[in-house]
Design brief:
The chain is α+β, with helices and mostly antiparallel strands and about 70 residues long. The protein has helices at about 15-25, 50-65; strands spanning about 1-10, 30-35, 40-45, 70. It has a four-stranded antiparallel β-sheet.
């Protein structure tokens, strides 16, 4: 499954890159793209694991970029 989410308050392209690299290392993430210009995160994961993977992505994002929120 592939879904896109709005990123609220991502501050810079470097922050987006750091977030993308960390998310890409999570188990279950097949593909991820974080675009600073469009303020969008696109996540691909297996259908049956997508919600679990998304929960871990949201938690990781909160640790790395506390001001950034993934709008579901």
């Amino acid at each position: 499954m592939r879904k896109s989410f709005k990123l609220d308050e991502i501050d810079c392209a470097n922050c987006a890159n750091k977030l993308q690299d960390a998310i890409a290392r999570l188990d279950g993430v097949e593909e991820v793209s974080v675009n600073f210009m469009t303020q969008k995160l696109t996540l691909t994961a297996a259908d049956e694991r997508f919600d679990d993977v998304l929960d871990r992505v949201v938690a990781l994002a909160a640790d790395i970029e506390p001001d950034c929120e993934i709008v579901r």
